[in-house]
Amino acid sequence: MATGAATPAPTPDEPGTPEREAPPTEGLLGHPLPPAERTQEIPLAPLPVETPGLLGHPAPEPTAPEGVGGSSEDTVALEVWRAVGYHPPADVDVDIPTLRPGAPGAAPWPDRMRTLLRTPMSERPAFERTPREAKGEATARNVPRILDLSLRIGELLLASGESAEDVEAAMLGVTHAYGLDRCEPQVTFTLISISYQPSLVEAPVTAARVVRRRTSDYTRLAAVHRLVADITAERLTVNDAYRRLAVIRRNRHPYPAWLISLTTGLLAGAATFLVGGRIDAKAWLVFANAFVAAIVGDRLASLVARRGLPEFYQFVVAAMPAAAFGIILSLNDLGLRGSIVITGGLFALLPGRALVAAVQDGLTGFYITAAARLLEVVYLVAGIVIGVMLILYAGVSYDANLKPAETMSGANNPPVQLVAAMLLTLAFAMLLQTDRRTLALVTFNSGIGWTTYGVLVYNAHVSAIVATGMAAGLVGLFGQLMARYRNASALPLVTAALGPLMPGSALYLGMLSFAQSHSSAGLVSVSRAAALAMALAIGVNLGGEVARLFLKVPGPGAEHRLVPYFSVPRRAAKRTRGF
Fold first, then answer.
1. Angstrom distance (rounded) from CA 502 to CA 380
2. What is the pLDDT of residues 370-386, one digit of tens each?
3. What are the φ and ψ backbone dihedral angles of 308, each rounded to 5 degrees?
4. How far is CA 395 from CA 67, 349, 401, 405, in A?
5. CA separation (Å) from 359 to 163, 249, 426?
């Protein structure tokens, strides 16, 4: 019961007073109703009170840590970052200034982006940008276009044979230049994708693209490399970058199809002098046979490709003419060295570009892509082996006079081999559609590699496997340095220069031994060819890594002066045991 006195209600007996209902009592039902002549508006619900934090405006303190890529858009407190797995490293004050230098133009974009790429995204700082950032490239409307641009650039690089890490670095550089800091690219053998996380409270934006065709056009690769350099230096808008990319895709190959066919024959012919090491009438006859056989094989492979057959069958067909010409020369006792024709044809078909890229991906931690590329190499080599073996079995059954020792007689004339190696490299570079201005450099780099190999094998009597690795290391070293001097990709300067070091002779000896029912000798030769190929790929990758030790990058501190690469601390994964 209420203790206060209730308001006396007028009696209905009083004249002129309207009859009223009894008001509710106090207590559980609330206070008495106000008089009828008074009105009161009661809202349905109180207005919400905006609070700082996840659902409201960003709180000034605490803010997201700068080293995590936080910006004014972040609305997540430090405790929330820690709850989702972020733990600032103990030496964060040292690492972030080390990673932060790299404003546009301070260092080549592969170095700057590779440093970001090897850092976990939760600890990835944002590089300094120019004042152009205030123009708002990374608006919500532009985010899908920026991601699509990075995917298209990554597709061209991957299709041209670029390593997976360099493709990811290029994609990360494009997105970073346009203001998307929390991006995670991912590259496999046929699929590339990229995901952008605006913040922890917003849904990520993910896009993907499938690489359907692979091309060997290093001129286009160099143009894409320059495009990425201009984008990361913040010289292009998104629209300008799209226009440049469209022009690059429309550009034709620098060399016509008929010249490429002649170059294929020139490569096989130069390989005969490289393996044979002689200049006489028989040598020129062998050169002519290898030249014609390679052109015929190239035309047959193009015919098969136009019918839509896979690349495996193209290699089977392309390997047959060289083996057939070699068998024909060996069906007499004139000593026309048919084995050298077959070996020269193998040099024109071995997938050295795919092998180098596969080993490089494996050494940099992209094991899925490396396994896929190695499997591609296995299939292509299997196609070559099948095409040659079919002809060799027929030739052995007809008592063809094949002499494996002919392929090892080149040590008698090293100058001839050097000229042949450089000519082979020039032809290989043209087959890869290398820019004309790069042909002289790649040919010179090949001369360095083959001279090193010849001195180590023929003068120092070093194992051919070790000599191949060391020569490939020098090719990778000088190729990387020349590429940095020209601010271009290293692939055009390295891949073709490795042509003379390919294990064509060892592979041919293995196939001939199998055809002659010498399984043990065949296994030894094939294993030797595989060891030479691995030494070749590992050596060129190691040479590229050593080249970075001679480069100068922005050092820690406010002045960002250039210091040697090895003097700047770099964070990387550490695993010293196999578990």
1. 15
2. 888 888 888 888 888 88
3. 85, 15
4. 68, 21, 9, 17
5. 9, 28, 24
Cα-Cα-Cα-Cα dihedral sign, residues 357, 360, 365, 367: positive
Please classify residue 252 by burial: count the beta carbons closer than 10 Å to its beta carbon, then call 0-12 exposed, 13-18 middle and 19+ buried. Answer: exposed
524 within a domain of the structure (yes/no): yes
Q: Which residues pair with 196 in a beta bridge?
A: 183, 205
Please work out, in degrees rounded to the nearest 5, the angle formed at the alpha carbon of residue 46 by the alpha carbons of 44 and 47: 115
Where does residue 255 rank: exposed (0-12), middle (13-18), buried (19+ CB within 10 A)?
A: middle
Model confidence at 127, pLDDT cuts 50, 70, 90, reads: low
Q: Look at residues 337, 344, 300, 304 and name the one whose alpha carbon lies nearest to residue 322.
A: 344
Per-residue pLDDT tens digits for 485-511? 887 888 888 988 988 888 877 777 788
CA atoms in the 13 A half-sphere facing the CB of 220? 26
Element (H, E) at 210: strand 205-210
Same-domain status, 263 and 356? yes
Q: Are 322 and 346 in contact (CB under 8 A)?
A: yes
User: With left for phi above 0 and alpha for psi between -120 and 50, is residue 515 left, alpha or beta?
Assistant: alpha
Q: SS in 3 state form for 396-454?
A: HHCCCCCCHHHHHHHHHCHHHHHHHHHHHHHHHHHHCCCCHHHHHHHHHHHHHHHHHHH
Q: Which domain holds residue 172?
A: 131-250
Total number of domains in the chain: 2
Domain contains 20: no
User: 């020369």: which residue's tokens?
Assistant: 329
Q: Do 356 and 318 contact (CB within 8 A), yes or no?
A: no
Q: Which residues are within 8 A (CB) of 352 and not within 5 positions of it... i.e. 6 or more apart? A: 495, 498, 499, 502, 536
Same domain? For 328 and 245 the reply is: no
CA quadruple 290, 296, 302, 307: dihedral positive or negative? negative
Task: Name the pairing type of β-strands 562-564 and 552-554.
Answer: antiparallel
Query: Do both 193 and 272 map to the same domain?
Result: no
Number of C-beta neighbours around residue 578 at 10 A = 4
pLDDT tens string 449-475: 999 998 898 888 888 889 999 999 999
Same domain, 470 and 394: yes
Residue 73 carries which side chain, given as an amino acid letter? E
Same domain, 181 and 326: no
> Residue 22 gets which letter from DSSP?
P
Q: Indicate if 214 and 293 belong to the same structural domain.
A: no
**Helical packing angle, 439-454 and 464-486, nearest 10°:** 150
3-class DSSP string for 218-230: HHHHHHHHHHHHH
Domain boundary among 250, 283, 316: 250
| 543 closest CA partner among 465, 477, 449 | 477
Position 461 in a domain: yes
Question: Rounded CA gap, 189 and 210, in Å?
Answer: 9
Q: Which residue has the tokens 């000229």?
A: 419
Q: Looking at the structure, tell me whether residues 305 and 176 fall in a common domain.
A: no
